[in-house]
Amino acid sequence: MSLRSGSRRVCGSKLLRPQSLANGSSNLRAATRWQRCQGVATTANAERVLFPGALNSEFTNSMDFLRPSTKKAIPTYRVMDQYGEVLDPAYKCDLEDEEALKLYRNMVCLSIMDLLMFEAQRQGRLSFYMVSAGEEGIAIGSASALSPGDVVFCQYRETGVYLQRGFTLDDFMNQLYANAKDHGLGRNMPVHYGSKELNIHTISSTLATQIPHAAGAAYALKLQNQQLPDTPPRIAVCYFGEGAASEGDFHAALNIAATRQVPAVFICRNNGYAISTPTSDQYRGDGIASRGAGYGIDTLRVDGNDIFAVRRATQEARRRALEDGGRPVLIEMMAYRVGHHSTSDDSFAYRQRVEVEDWKRRDNPITRMRKWLEGKSIWSEDKERELRSSLRKEILVAFDKAEKMKKPAISNMFKGVYENPTEEQKDHATELKDILTRYPKEYDVDHHEGGVGGLDELLETKS
Questions:
Q1: How confident is the model at residue 53 (pLDDT cuts 50, 70, 90)?
Q2: What is the pTM of this model?
């Protein structure tokens, strides 16, 4: 169900509970039923059977194949419409004005940074970049509902998650330039951020690998939550696109998360395209949410342009993830990828420009929240102009500073694997230093900290 075709407004925050779909009046918990069904044989007059592979299935003499196309699509939860009007009069925003303004500021900051960095790449000052246009509300809204201790696994369009959790503009620029202050010391390509301090694992280009990693981390957190009952419980949160949900890693991760009942929240950004492949060519089922139900996972579909719906859904998902020792939750966030997949992509080769312009004009998370703020009389055109001007200056200052900074010392290419350098590594470093010294014109390394001398510390270290 796409946002374009869906006209039904859903204002409740009810998550799809797969175990509640079974017929019958049994109130047994799903885990208990699974335990009881093993090895149970039916009696002659039984109306239903507990097969080891099914839950409380009724017998029937009617052969009716399940046809998903005849069923209603999973509804999409939202709090406010594209005009910034709250749909449910009973809804009470849990944000103070200053908190709401911070969320808005971060969304605007993200959009301005995306624009400037995209232009910088086109100027040849960056090698690569990916924008989040149209999806700012998903990243920032969901991140605002998490605990700082929660362990986060991102894909590559979650810049807003980092921003909301405290990643600074300097941190972003240092990573994009792979300079000496980059947390990864130049070992990763641009926009593949990571932060141990913020409990966010470093992004990997390999599609979907973070999903089983998150399931495994959630299992470890489940054990930790049990062993340390006096410390605040934590969950694992995993972000991915609907294209990644076509990988085998997605299915393996959700299955083990469900069977192990781990405290994890899986957030799928369904933005309509997996690079150049539209969702119509990716799957025939009802989006990604329908898969959560298939794996026995609490599931919800959310309007990703509605930051309040995103935030509220994530809050509830986190609460459920910690219930009864842990359980996984899947949220499918619906949005539209306004920008190109990356700076290496020209999306107008596979979609019409008018389609993109229509989405830009009609609805996006930033304008929707701005209308809400203006409706509360806490925002105005003058404040908007001032905010955008000041943010642009802040971003450009950080950009200019990072661009002028030197690259990490060459010795870093040998570090991070062994606690101390091995003799073989030292031999390689010695050979490298010899080549760099003999051919200085061919290998200009003065833009690295210490130049050729940057290898000396490594060579002097005891193995």
A1: confident
A2: 0.89
Q: Catalytic: 341?
A: yes
**Which residues, 6+ apart, have CB-to-CB distance to 215 below 8 Å?**
236, 238, 253, 254, 256, 257, 260, 262, 264, 328
pLDDT for res 26: 41
Structure tokens at 428: 């390689």
DSSP state string for 118-167? HHHHHTTS-S-----TT-HHHHHHHHTTS-TTSEEE--SS-HHHHHHHT-
Q: Using the predicted structure, report yes or no on whether residue 142 has a pLDDT greater than 50.
A: yes
Residue 323 appears among annotated catalytic residues: no
Contact 383, 104 (CB under 8 A): no
Domains parsed from the chain with CATH numbers: 18-70 (no CATH), 97-404 (3.40.50.970), 410-460 (no CATH)
Please tell me what DSSP assigns to residue 452.
G
Least confident of 83-87, 296-300, 357-361: 357-361
Residue 71 tokens, joined = 């069923």
Q: Given 111, 144, 290, 342, which residue is catalytic?
A: 342
447 in catalytic set: no
116: tokens are 């400037």
Distance CA 314, CA 216 (A): 20
Q: Which of 127, 147, 205, 390 is catalytic?
A: 205
List C-alpha distances in Å: 56 to 26, 53, 59, 65. Answer: 9, 10, 10, 18
Catalytic entry in 242, 341, 347, 448: 341
Active site residue 246: no
